[in-house]
Design a protein that fits this description.
The complex is a heterodimer of chains A (533) and B (499). With 533 residues, chain A is α/β, with parallel strands linked by helices. Chain A has a domain of 273 residues: Polyamine Oxidase, Chain A, domain 2. In chain A, 36% of the residues lie in helices and 20% in strands. Chain A has an eight-stranded mixed sheet with strand order 1-22-18-21-20-19-10-11. In chain A, strands 13-4-3-17-23 form a five-stranded parallel sheet, with helices on one face. In chain A, helix 4 crosses helix 17, helix 7 packs across helix 10 and helix 8 packs across helix 10. Chain B folds into three domains: 216 residues, Growth Hormone, Chain: A; 33 residues, no CATH class; 240 residues, Rossmann fold. By secondary structure, chain B is of the alpha/beta class. Chain B starts with a helix and ends with a helix. In chain B, 49% of the residues are buried. Chain B contains 18 helices and eleven strands. The longest helix of chain B is centred in the first third of the chain and has 54 residues. In chain B, helix 10 links the parallel strand 5 and strand 6. In chain B, helix 6 crosses helix 7. Classes of the chains: A alpha/beta (533), B alpha/beta (499). Bound molecules: flavin-adenine dinucleotide. Flavin-adenine dinucleotide (FAD) binds next to helix 4, strand 7, strand 18, strand 22 and helix 17 of chain A.
Chain lengths: 533, 499
């Protein structure tokens, strides 16, 4: 600034002051704009947040409370109305629904099916959100072999099996399975075994041994067609059997362990070798499967429930079944008492001593499970082969996750999705695990799941928006050593006359096919008994 | 001493201009929209140079040593500028931030150079000569650089190495200056040592340059990018080289404007000309509007439904002047109805029937796209076909991917369609194949074609259905949702070709 200008401006102070004020205001405004820009700067510049956004969700489908009240003998409502009906089915899982299916197929409609929960399905229930439908437990049925006639009949009825073969929209889309091992996703659950000499060798020997067992004819679906109570394999644990066969490599043992954890929620030590072999030997697939739906086996349960119509009564726990002498049974549920000749008991068998007059505990062992449905707003980062339907982490405590959107037709794969995460609690004894499960918090579990999955998906936390979790204290029966010999399984007189046990736990193998078979057999018994009358 | 000094002016001027061009070119290459990129980068750079010139007043002592250090800084930052920018683009979300910070740093240093040099020289020569010579050589250097950049540097060396080369020039000038002014420099050993270190570093960069570019981006386009956008679904890039316009989706070439007429005429007319009564046409994929352009040559066609996943794609091809010129504005035709949805999902939920269907999806190189080549998809498609309707499917190369091609034909066959595979030569793709199919087993090549086709003639059409010995059918499985064999065939076959 020249001295002249200085003088000039001082001669007109007001205008100078207004100028200063104005420019000051302009500077402040610009400054404010810059500051506000900077607080938004990370977003504007594309810098990502370090910590993930908050994940919503909570425990869902909690129903342990009623079970505990039954167990503790809490007082239950006294009946206000009497309903006379020839047959009552208790428990609307796959077994109860299948019993009803069989009754309906024979034109028998004089029965009711009482289900405790709001929805039928039991372990074949599912949920739905804006992104996808998803299962809460059972999510697939293996493609049935030629001997599984009941399953085939049902699938024919449901249009899944036609004269031209299996419905291709229901067969699991490729790729079916992958394993996260050695820092990347690899195809197939046997990826680790196939990756080494010893592994390949042991897998071959294992397959040979299984093939030999398959030829014995003992391993069938349903299991009742082949199982023999005295089987030598049932007298040792699967771990023992593997030891004896010299199958000891860590990869082989993990592979076998995964099998028993996945199907029975138990370690190979806690599983009968008969059941361990059954998992591998009973399937005779004729087609690349399995059969699956985004919502899992709910798809089947819904259709079965629709066939039962108004004979299905949900939200109605049965709290007592009393003998009515020669006249049959009195089934108490809510404020009603059903007077009937026959009872199909398709609720878990361990409930019988608390509910059915004069019945003992079957002495079965049940595995606790935890299932979480994770909603993701996009597919997280990963390395290796592309996403499969079933995604297993070699290092995981859980069994990995199944992608609910896998069966979607859309070509795009990286959009929002729902993963169903499964964890069988097998480390400690079931009672301890159940206690720990009941006292653990939802956020602890979210943290555990995130840590486990982050091994394969480093940015998982930033992709997951919602996590709902169910805890299933008595999720599935365990085929422990000598399970085939249990009285409740062997002795046809174990249940009193008129009580027809139907739950899949009687098979010791928690499978759709077993539930269906038990349900149908119980229904046949009811039909025969009703026929006699 | 005069000539070498003024020569170094020429060199540093060239360097300064090269960095500016490298930054602008890289920005337009990676971000597209070259006018904006060039003007904002150059503007920022010039402004930063002004800041540098102004700052030069605060440097008073040890001018030569300062000058040498600045040269080294410019050499280092400028030399590695394109490397840094590529990596920033590949590995961070903050490419623009890095770009402009780099441009400002470089501009400031480059802005310091000339004022300092002038002041160094002003005591040795008459001021009027200094100004005149320095500016003359400055502008000469700029001219040399601006000519060499497009003609020599980019085509021969690429952006990463061009920048590194000029970094070496800057460091060379620094070393040279140390030697020229050795009598007046105190810390000459240190400066000479630093210069050598920078030279070594840049040479190492030069040696590893290819690795860096590969590391940074596996999709390097050799031509100028005139448009690029990352949409929710894909990365759309348009490149131009003379009159050749190319579209790339996720770095896969979709067409070259030089020969796309061959592809699109062959895709549409053999089928549609054989069905003069066709009224309703469906196009799946093909958001570029080029197949639609060919369809519109058939006056009998009343409605064309185009289903393309990506709204950005159909928007660009309805609005970008160059692209609208290429597809003759086909997407704006009143006959055309654009739907942005997944083709499989759309077909599954709409009952509409069509007389002719064009299926022009990307090649089946992943399980997602692979679903669109399965028995289930073709069966669904067949349900949307009128009784004597035809469908044509782009089916990759019967020569390079023979199994894939015949797998697509087999899959359509198993879905209940009668197939008529054919092929042609498209220079930018090579030998390419299509599968035409009907419901009832009727197809004879057309006896007339629309006027003014550039490739197809009535005589040519039947010849396309002949396959030479090396493209004959091979035994393959059909592609099903639960096996997706096609993706595996395709991967194996193109791996072999690309190796
Ligand atoms: C996590 C998990 C995953 C599984 N995944 C698969 C799979 O993928 N494929 C497969 O084949 N199998 C799977 N299974 C096994 C699954 O349990 C069986 O397939 C099948 O669904 C069992 O049917 P169910 O009817 O025997 O028993 P449940 O499903 O246990 O049904 C019992 C029903 O009885 C009801 N009930 C209980 N008490 C009462 C009462 N007092 N009054 C009235 N109603 C009562 C319950 O609410 C329930 O609906 C899975 C199991 C679990 C736990």
């Amino acid at each position: 600034m020249s001295p002249d200008e200085n003088k000039d401006s001082s001669s007109s102070p007001p205008s100078r002051r207004t100028f200063l004020l104005a420019s000051g205001a302009a500077v402040v405004a610009a400054g404010a704009a810059i500051v506000s820009r900077f607080t938004n700067a990370p977003a504007l510049l594309g810098l990502d947040r370090k910590s993930g956004p908050r994940i919503s969700g909570g425990w869902v489908n909690e129903s342990a409370a009623l079970g505990h009240r039954l167990r503790d003998g809490a007082s239950m409502p006294t009946p206000r109305r009497i309903v006379r009906v020839p047959a009552v089915a208790v428990g609307g899982g796959i077994a109860g629904l299948s019993a009803a299916w069989q009754l309906e197929r024979h034109g028998f409609r004089d029965y009711v099916l009482l289900e405790m929960e709001r929805d039928a399905g039991g372990n074949a229930r599912g949920g739905e959100n804006a992104v996808s439908r998803y299962p809460w437990a059972a999510h697939y049925v293996p493609v049935p072999g030629p001997r599984a006639t009941l399953v085939r009949e049902l699938f024919r009825e449901l249009g899944v099996l036609t004269d031209t073969g299996w419905d291709e929209r229901t067969l699991c889309f490729a790729p079916q399975e992958r394993l996260f091992v050695h820092g990347e996703w690899q195809s197939g659950l046997d990826a680790e075994l196939l990756g080494s000499h010893t592994g390949r060798d042991e897998l071959h020997r294992f397959d040979d041994l299984i093939a030999e067992q398959r030829r014995s004819g003992e391993f069938t679906i349903p299991m009742a067609l082949g199982a023999r109570a005295g089987s030598a394999l049932d007298r040792m644990s699967f771990a023992h059997w593997l030891d004896a066969a010299g199958l000891r490599s860590p990869a082989m043992r993990w592979y076998a362990e995964y099998g028993t954890r996945d199907d029975y929620g138990a370690s190979t030590r806690d599983t009968s070798a008969w059941a361990g072999v059954h998992y591998h030997a009973a399937r005779e697939p004729t087609e690349q499967g399995p059969l699956t739906w985004p919502e899992g086996n709910t798809w089947i349960a819904r259709r079965l429930a629709a066939r039962v119509g108004t004979r299905l009564i949900t939200g109605t726990p049965v709290h007592r079944i009393l003998s009515n002498g020669r006249k049959g049974w009195r089934v108490r549920a809510g404020d009603a008492e059903y007077l009937c000749d026959d009872v199909i008991f398709a609720a878990p068998t361990f409930l019988t001593p608390y509910i059915v007059e004069g019945m003992r505990a079957p002495g079965f062992v049940y595995s606790p499970w935890l299932v979480a449905n994770l909603t993701l707003d996009r597919w997280p980062e990963e390395r290796g082969v592309p996403p499969a339907w079933d995604n297993v982490l070699r290092s995981g405590v859980g069994l990995g996750y199944v992608v609910a959107t896998h069966q979607a037709l859309r070509a795009r794969e990286d959009g929002p999705t729902v993963w169903t995460y499964y964890c069988a609690l097998t480390t400690r004894d079931p009672a301890t695990e159940r206690r720990v499960l009941q006292t653990s918090t939802w956020s602890d579990w979210v943290e555990r799941i995130m840590m486990e999955l982050a091994v394969a998906h480093p940015n998982i936390r930033r992709c997951v928006t919602h996590v709902d979790i169910v805890r299933l204290g008595h999720a599935m029966v365990r085929p422990t050593v000598a399970f085939l010999g249990a009285d409740a399984r062997r002795d046809p007189q174990w249940a009193p006359r008129g009580i027809h046990l139907a739950h899949s736990d009687l098979s010791g193998l928690s499978l759709f096919e077993e539930a269906q078979y038990r349900g149908v057999v119980a229904a046949d018994a009811v039909l025969a008994s009703q026929h006699r009358r | 001493m005069a000539v070498p000094l003024f020569l170094s002016v020429l060199l540093i001027a060239a360097c300064g201009l090269i960095y500016e061009l490298v930054a602008s070119a890289l920005a337009s290459y990676l971000l597209g929209d070259s006018v904006t990129q060039f003007s904002t980068v150059i503007g920022t750079y010039l402004f930063a140079m002004g800041v540098g010139s102004w700052l030069s007043r605060f440097l008073s002592r040890g001018l030569v040593a300062r000058f040498v250090s600045i040269e080294l800084m410019v050499g280092l930052v400028g030399g590695f500028s394109s490397t840094i920018l590529f990596l920033a683009f590949a590995y961070t979300g903050a490419f623009r931030l890095v770009l402009y910070v780099l441009v400002v740093i470089l501009g400031v240093f480059v802005g310091l150079e000339i004022p300092l040099l002038m002041r160094i020289l002003k005591d040795r020569y008459a001021f009027k000569d200094v100004v005149s010579n320095v500016l003359t050589f400055d502008y000469l250097g700029a001219l040399a650089a601006s000519l060499a950049f497009p003609i020599l540097l980019v085509p021969r060396l690429g952006l990463v190495r061009s920048a590194l080369l000029f970094g070496l020039v800057n460091a060379g000038v620094a070393l040279w200056s140390v030697w020229l002014f050795r009598a007046h420099l105190g810390a000459r050993r240190v400066l000479a040592g630093a210069s050598v270190a920078v030279l070594l570093l840049l040479s190492a960069g030069m040696a590893g340059a290819t690795k860096i570019t590969n590391l940074a981006e596996d999709n390097i386009y050799s031509d100028e990018v005139i448009f690029s956008r990352t949409t929710r679904y894909q990365r759309i890039v348009l490149t131009a080289w003379k009159d050749d316009l190319r579209l790339w989706l996720n770095a896969h070439l979709q067409f070259s404007s030089r020969d796309e007429y061959r592809y699109h005429e062959a895709l549409v007319h053999p089928g549609l000309s054989a069905r003069p009564s066709a009224r309703r046409v469906l196009v799946l994929g093909g958001g570029d509007g080029l197949a639609v352009r060919e369809l519109l040559k058939h006056p009998g066609v009343e409605t064309i439904t185009l289903v393309d996943l990506d709204p950005e794609m159909t928007r660009i091809f309805s609005t970008h002047p160059t692209l609208v010129a290429l597809n003759h504005g086909s997407l704006s035709s009143p006959k055309v109805h654009v739907v942005n949805d997944d083709a499989f999902v759309w077909l599954d939920k709409h009952p509409d029937m069509f007389d002719f269907v064009v299926v022009d999806f990307p090649d089946p190189n992943n399980y997602g796209v692979g679903k669109l080549y399965t028995t289930v998809f073709y069966r669904l498609l067949a349900r949307h076909l009128s009784r004597d309707g035809l469908v044509v499917v782009q089916a990759t190369s019967p020569l390079f991917a023979r199994k894939s091609f015949w797998c697509i034909a087999e899959t359509m066959h198993q879905a209940g369609l009668t197939t008529y595979p054919y092929h042609l030569y498209v220079p930018s793709f090579g030998e390419w194949g299509f599968v035409l199919a009907s419901l009832d087993g009727g197809y004879t090549p057309p006896t007339t074609l629309p006027a003014q086709l550039r490739y197809l003639t009535v005589a040519e059409v039947p010849r396309m259905f002949e396959f030479s010995a090396d493209m004959q059918p091979v035994a393959v499985e059909a592609n099903r949702l639960n096996t997706q064999v096609l993706v595996r065939y395709y991967e194996q076959e193109w791996d072999r070709v690309n190796r």
